[in-house]
Amino acid sequence: MQFWGTRGSLAKPGRNTVRYGGNTSCVQLTSPGGSLVVMDCGTGAHDLGQTLLAQAEGPLRGSILISHTHWDHIQGFPFFAPLFVPGGQWDIYGPAGLGQSLRETLAGQMQYSYFPLTLDEMGASIRFHDLVEGTLEIDDMRITTRYLNHSVLTLAYRFDMAGIRVVYACDHEPYSREPAAPDKLSERDRQHSEFFADADLVIHDAQYTDAEYLSKKGWGHSPVEYVSAIARAAGVRQLALAHHDPLRTDDALDQVVAAVYADLAERKSPMHAFAAADGQIVELRAPDQPQQTRESIVTATPAAAPVIRESTVVMGISDTKLAVTLAEATRAEGVRMSHASDGSSLLQMVESEVPSLVLMEDRLSGLDGLGICKSVRGAGGAESKNVPIVIVADRERADEGKAAGVTGWLVKPFTTQYARAHIQSWIMRTACRWARAAMPPDEVTRLATLRGLGLLDTSPEERFDRITRVAAALADVPIAYISLMDENRQWFKSCRGFAASETSRDAAFCAHVILKREPLIIPDTHQDVRFTDNPLVTGAPGIRFYAGFPVFHKNASCIGTLCLVDTRPRQFPEAMIKMFADLASLVQQEVNFGNGK
């Protein structure tokens, strides 16, 4: 592992930052199996990119994990040279938002007004992945993500690989901080600490000291004393203090580290702490004894973000000023909002709308918010019982809230920006029944084969249209199409009954056919958790029945599908299914021999 940028907020090269460096956040991790991961892409990414190219013997393959899209964490992205090398393969991961995707955000800083090249002019093959809390696997690494307490959606990343655990957490602010009692952690800070349990190395935002933090609350960063306390509580072996304040000189950082060392010595803590420096290398080896890790609250959920269905927030807020602030935060994300000024109206709205989130005052028109929460949990169906309920209050009552079924707390005072980020995270945590298909192992060859056919974006052809006509008539379905699966979209070579010429690959049912290389029959999408909340089910064309059959190139690459779709549930006998498969074979014949290729 090597640090390439350890400064926070603003790059600060100069004579006073020579030893610790002035570049903003960027860390390189190489897994035991040799896989390359870059954590954040601040200005340090420029030096990293140049070094990688100097050492490379050919195009590079790697992954970039973005914690969030504040500029000090993405400014180096357009200057990361390996992204411009043809033949390179890069996967970019980052937190999903309710509005722009990660790709759109990164492309935004490369617009004509700011940068001479666009994202599409990079030479490498780049795939973008929007994440929520959960787990994913990259080669020999199991990565767990968790939201941090920051003013925009921000993810921490925990890497488990060959007995080694590393955590990267920038930027984060304490949920509750009492400098007079540094070891007394609130419930949410304790949960944050548990995310680090038994880590061999934690890299954590430690921009301030306790004294500085008094005037910096709400800025989204941690005091070093707090970071030391949560790391000790988690049994961390090494703690790298990072995201150094741009005003912190080398000598001042030495003083911060010395204070941490003195505190650890006084507590007889075995934890090793240091201030991360640009260029510093840290080598980690698995401990002799197996790690005894605690169960995580996020390890069972896939981190790949669903496309969020149209979200609704119900607000039970009687305070006018508070209601305006929360309404601004909600509308900024394009989320629909309903407002209730009393407990009775709130209960009715929750039962009738089943919202994505409930925001409610601790005292709503004289009623106890916890009591209303208990009423919601005790009445109605399973969906209303599971809706996230967040209490807005002057202080957090963790134990009482847990007993009442409170999902979270929004403690006053807070800014509109802070509320906006947390509204997003609470909605994102809501279970969404929709699974994206993973990329097939032969994806590079498959895409090259598809594009070599020369069929993408061509005009309609009768040889394909007659097959979809017959398929629709035979099955008596309103929609039939021949789909070709490109890198980020499914494109319809022939389509009956659906006006679109393409959809995103993320939403495509056909992507599952491409992955499994076998027919996929879904009698009723409302009964299949992989597709219930898919936007092609909840929106146009309203898929209830789906039958997809793979179409193969003569080199065995699965390049597309023949699909039958209905807006009502359907069942077909096996003999009819075989006839549909025969039609897919005719598509395959046309693909391989009908156009002379």
List the SSEs and their pairings.
Layout: E1 2-5, E2 26-30, E3 36-39, H1 44-55, E4 61-65, E5 89-95, H2 102-108, E6 125-131, E7 134-138, E8 141-147, E9 155-161, E10 164-169, H3 187-194, E11 201-205, H4 210-213, H5 224-233, E12 238-242, H6 250-266, E13 272-275, E14 312-316, H7 320-331, E15 336-340, H8 343-353, E16 357-361, E17 363-364, E18 367-368, H9 369-378, H10 382-386, E19 389-393, H11 398-404, E20 408-411, H12 416-429, H13 443-453, H14 462-475, E21 479-485, E22 489-496, E23 502-504, H15 510-516, E24 520-522, H16 535-538, E25 545-552, E26 558-566, H17 574-594
Parallel strand pairs: 3-4, 4-5, 5-6, 10-11, 11-12, 12-13, 14-15, 14-16, 16-19, 19-20
Antiparallel strand pairs: 1-2, 2-3, 7-8, 8-9, 9-10, 17-18, 21-22, 21-26, 22-23, 24-25, 25-26
Helix pairs in contact: 7-12, 8-9, 14-17
